[in-house]
TrEMBL record:
Record carries keyword Ligase: no
Alphabetical list of Gene3D superfamilies matching this protein: 3.30.60.90, Homeodomain-like, Winged helix-like DNA-binding domain superfamily/Winged helix DNA-binding domain
Biased composition (Polar residues): 404-413
Region annotation Disordered: where it falls in the sequence: 138-193, 357-380, 395-432
Protein's cellular compartments: Nucleus
PANTHER family: TRANSCRIPTIONAL ADAPTER 2-ALPHA, TRANSCRIPTIONAL ADAPTOR 2 ADA2 -RELATED
Species assigned in the record: Cercospora kikuchii
The protein's name in its UniProt record: Transcriptional adapter 2
Record key words, sorted: Metal-binding, Nucleus, Transcription, Transcription regulation, Zinc, Zinc-finger
Superkingdom per UniProt: Eukaryota
Chief subcellular location: nucleus
Basic and acidic residues bias spans: 139-178
Keyword field contains Zinc-finger: yes
């Protein structure tokens, strides 16, 4: 019995009982002989010539087939499990044929080739589990022809019933799904106008203007010739190759930064613009302010963790607001909730009466009514950003500390512009979020310091962390010499960093202690 050649796959249609797959038809009577015994001509002059048993027994023939002289093969569908309980030998053979014909990556086409309503993921998982993960790779576990344990354990009749039941169930599910109104298909063309976010191309998962969009300009004409490379005399790269390697390193860093930003966009589903805007509109003004200040933390968190983190901070903010309100009621000698609500109503009415009512022509002069919350600088009646509220030094539940003491809480001067003069002869830099990662993590005074010293924000954060760790060992006190040694930068810049940290109150000057 010779090898079975590739069969022509019939087009997949909704009406086929096998759910697609290869279909064999008698070349004389045109009957479907896919699931029955068939006779195949083994002569080289007949290509893919199949006959049903009645036509073969009657000696019928057409085309170039001569039943008297041509050899033939009797082919029976081996619908018994050999490698897996749910896969028959015929399906295993069709799987290998489809992989050879369409390639291992085209599992959707292989599933159509197999038929039986097999799904793409099902075919891929079966191939990986049976062939790739096998201890006898590249052969399956039961590759030995003498191993008939699986086929003996599952009788042919029982396996046929399982297969028929599976096909009927999947066919019924597909028919039921056909009656449901189909969802609008996404646009097939990958152009910016096919997505709700302008400039995004969904088919390519790219943007029209990428981060560092000009990064490719530096390497577009770069070439590495076979003559370049390591100099045999010095065992090092020649200067030209070394320069090219530096340029490629910079280019790879920019691609990494671009990829990191795409990961944040995709992981946090920022491309669902309409859905995100609908959620944003449901939030109050205070919640929006809080979420805007928490957005930098999304870069280092997964989406579920960031959602939990934001919800927990909202709860903390509400609790702090409630505590502050109860403390205010206690100062006003209010002991019941009923009197507290009455106090809040009278307070709001009193504040409303203190402002003049808007006249008929006030809107023509663009007059804006001042906010009630601006009058009360104590515990907020409306929720404010938790970052601002939790770092105030005058909270009712926090002890007051002297200005400039290293108690772990920066004073108000650190939130303003730095008073340190620039270094003579050193032009200030102009960092921003595009040119300097971690720029948004700095306070305004720290941003001003980095610009004056031309110090990269990431390097400044490393220096600051090392200095504060060292200061914790000596009760928050360090000398300028220690900071210069820790920072390992120019002595003038190191001295300015020390002066800034002392001015901000994060450390103390050990020389004056």
């Amino acid at each position: 019995m010779g090898l079975i050649t590739k069969a022509k796959g019939a087009p997949k249609s909704e009406g086929t009982s096998a759910g697609g797959g290869v279909k064999y038809i008698c070349n004389v009577c045109s009957n479907d002989i896919t699931a029955t015994v068939r006779i195949r001509c083994a002569s080289k002059s007949c290509n893919d010539y199949d006959l049903c048993v009645p036509c073969f027994s009657q000696g019928k023939a057409n085309l170039h087939h001569d039943p008297r002289t041509h050899a033939y093969q009797v082919i029976e569908p081996h619908s018994i499990p050999i490698f897996d309980e749910g896969w028959g030998a015929d399906e295993e053979l069709l799987l290998l044929e489809g992989a050879e014909q369409y390639g291992l990556g085209s599992f959707a086409d292989i599933a159509d080739h197999i038929g039986g309503y097999r799904e793409k993921d099902e075919v891929r998982d079966h191939y990986i589990q049976t062939y790739i993960n096998s201890s006898k790779f590249p052969l399956p576990e039961r590759a030995d022809p003498r191993d008939k344990s699986l086929s003996d354990a599952v009788p042919r009749e029982e396996f046929q019933q399982r297969k028929k039941r599976r096909i009927d169930e999947r066919k019924q599910a597909k028919d039921d799904q056909a009656h449901i109104a189909p969802t609008p298909a996404k646009p097939t063309s990958s152009v910016p106008s096919c997505h709700e976010v302008a400039g995004f191309m969904p088919g390519r998962l790219e943007f029209e203007n990428e981060y560092f969009n000009e990064a490719e300009e530096a390497v577009q004409h770069m070439q590495f010739s076979p003559e370049e490379g390591i100099n045999p005399a010095t065992k090092q790269f020649d200067p030209e190759t070394e320069l090219k390697m530096v340029v490629m390193t910079i280019y790879n860093d920019r691609l990494t930064a671009r990829t990191d930003r795409k990961k944040v966009i995709f992981n946090h589903r920022l491309l669902d613009y309409r859905k995100n805007m609908a959620v944003e509109k449901k939030r109050t003004r205070e919640q929006r302010e809080l979420h805007n200040k928490l957005k930098p933390f999304a870069r280092i968190m997964s989406h579920p963790d960031f959602v939990t983190f934001s919800e927990d901070l909202e709860k903390e903010q509400n609790l702090r607001q409630a505590i502050a309100q109860l403390q205010e009621w206690r100062r006003m000698r209010i002991s019941t909730l009923q009197h507290g609500h009455q106090y809040e109503q009278e307070k709001a009415a009193r504040l409303a009466r203190s402002y003049p009512q808007p006249g008929q022509f006030d809107r023509l002069t663009n007059g804006v009514r001042p906010k009630l919350a601006d009058k009360d600088k104590g515990a907020p009646e409306v929720a404010q950003a938790v970052v601002d509220y939790t770092t105030k030094a005058d909270l009712p539940v926090r002890l007051h500390s002297e200005r400039g003491q290293p108690n772990g809480t920066p004073n108000n001067d650190s939130a303003k512009k730095s008073n340190l003069p620039p270094i003579p002869g050193l032009a200030p830099a102009n960092w921003d979020e595009e040119s300097a990662p971690d720029w948004q993590l700095l306070q305004p005074a720290e941003q001003d310091l980095c610009n004056k010293l031309r110090l990269h924000p990431k390097a400044y954060n490393c220096i600051k962390d090392a200095v504060l760790r060292e200061a914790m060992k000596y009760d928050g006190k360090l000398k300028k010499k220690n900071v210069r040694e820790i920072s390992k930068i120019d002595t003038t810049k190191g001295g300015r960093v020390f002066e800034f940290l002392v001015e901000a109150g994060w450390i103390s000057n050990a020389a004056k202690a």
